[in-house]
Design a protein that fits this description.
With about 130 residues, the protein is mainly beta. It is about 0% helix and about 50% strand. The strands form 2 sheets. Strands 2, 4, 5, 6, 9, 10 and 11 form a 7-stranded mixed β-sheet that branches. It is globular, with a radius of gyration of 13 Å.
Length: about 130
């Protein structure tokens, strides 16, 4: 299990951009699929975007496809979520998670597949 720290959240106007970062404490982070989830009050945590350990496979929720981009920098032990054309409905706490099977080229869409989580970073999009 690794420790993950998210950063980059904040308040932005609709149409604006933000880049979220997820930085890990250990190098084993590099062996796993990393995923961004988001959650609003009273709702379940939902899948946003994921990237496999080798960066060769990514996937996005339909609601963010074409607007968000996930990437990883293994030198910096980090995964990023570039968010553009933000909408008020993107407002949520965003969490990064790492897990699944080491060196697997699989995307996992449900929170229970992940063993390591960050504390979350709040994104607020004003209209």
């Amino acid at each position: 299990q690794v420790q993950l720290i998210e950063s980059g959240g904040g308040l932005v106007q609709a149409g604006g951009s933000l880049r979220l970062s997820c930085t890990a404490s250990g190098r084993t982070f590099l062996q796993y699929t990393t995923t961004w989830f988001r959650q609003t009050s009273g709702k379940e945590r939902e899948f946003v975007a994921a990237i496999t350990w080798d960066g060769r496979l990514t996937d996005y929720a339909l609601s963010v496809k074409g607007r968000f981009s996930i990437s990883r920098d293994d030198v910096k032990n980090s995964v990023y979520l570039q968010m553009s054309s933000l909408k008020p409905e993107d407002t949520a706490n965003y969490y990064c998670a790492a897990g699944g099977t080491a060196f697997s080229r699989s995307i996992y869409y449900t929170p229970n597949e992940y063993s390591s989580w960050g504390q979350g970073t709040l994104v607020t999009v004003s209209s």
